[in-house]
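User: Hi! I'm working on a homework problem where we have to compare a predicted structure to a textbook description. Could you give me the structure for the chain below?
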Amino acid sequence: MNRKAFRNGIKPGWHYFGRKMDVADFEWVMWFTSFRNVIIFALSGHVLFGKICSMTVPQHRAVVYMLYGFLAVLSSMGPAYLMIILSHCLVLYSVALAKQKWLCYVAGLCCLASFKMEPFSSWQSGFVTGAFDLQDVLFYGGSGFTIMRCMSFALESAEKKEGIYSIFDLLKYNFYLPFFFFGPVMTFDQFLAQVSHRELRRKDDEMRNIRVHALIHVGAIIAVDIFFHFFYILTLPSDLKFTNRLSDWSLAGLAYSNLVYDWVKAAVMFGVINTIARLDHLDPPQPPKCITMLYVFAETHFDRGINDWLCKYVYDHIGENHDNIIKELVASIATFAVTTLWLGPCEIIYIWSVFNCFGLNFELWVQKFFQQAPFAKLEAKMSAAMSRRIRAVFGAVNFWAIILFNILALNSLEFALLVTRRLLQTGFPVSTLSIWFITYCGVQLIKEHERILAIKEEKSAKAKAE
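Assistant: Happy to help. Predicted structure tokens:
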């Protein structure tokens, strides 16, 4: 094992158990180790003031959320950062007054590029004085999400038939603290509709569900912490000499485990924030779909808020009903272009975007091909179970394509190439076919689970109609 490769990723952990900790993921370490107390303090204050306001003056709760978020940003990042954020809000509000969508897109993407590309990024960050470990994360996180929210505001204002929303509405929307630095993004129309409710009533068992979800998130945090002290799945891929000696099955399991971890991290981080938002009587974007349940590119995402934003304002806006191959191609290219800008343009992100854009379009091309009359007639003669089996064959291939395309961004190009060679070249046919067969069985189980859920939902819809 290359100990030098491990040195940067492994730090002192559980001293009493003699275990070191995998710290390769700075986001998790930041959230639940380094700045855990600060984050808990800030969010607890928000919950406390929000609860008092909801009980006393519920019609003004959005204003209280805004003021608390405003003060939290000011105290944590300083007046210079706050002025930068407000200046971008003012620019995009001014653009929204023209009620021209194309102008909103151009201005919004230019503002986003100013935080993602040099030298504009360094120039703006230079105004923020002081230095602490969390500063860069908060600066770029808050700035990026602010631009996405401001673009949503501008585009919704352009859609409004009469007048325009006020800048006060924009500030209430942007400075909601739980969403400010780390997301998720709620589109402006959804946020405004939910935060404007004056009669705050909870559904039956809603508080019980919130408590259950909170306990599940605590359990997930503990489980991930245990994994970090025993398995080191994030640091292992950095040592290519070691991973080269792993068996095909172990290497495939390591690649899959990295994506599962990234899903768990996203589910926990967004789940914690969503729990707070639900306490504020909001219905935020749900955590991403479990990676194990994904076998189509159209459902692949790790941030449902950004995914919903991109679908509404880019993908569905251009692709419309997604039946036309040319429109779908243009829509997907535009979507991944915006995603590339959002993630920060660099070589590995370009490669990730190209592969995932190709996967999404190839999926549609294959679907269109098999919808041709000869294949449609052949499928019509099959039983539903046989149709699912054949679709699961393609779903199993798609599942591993999703894993291979996404470990590019999570680990490295070298690790992704190593896994690809072992699964498709050196491991063929025994490892390739056996891993594909196990995946096929898993996709079959997922499709059966989806079928049962669809039947239950259909029965529930009929019962409500009656």
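For your comparison, note the following. Strands lie at 10-14, 19-22. The first strand starts at residue 10 and ends at 14. Good luck with the assignment!
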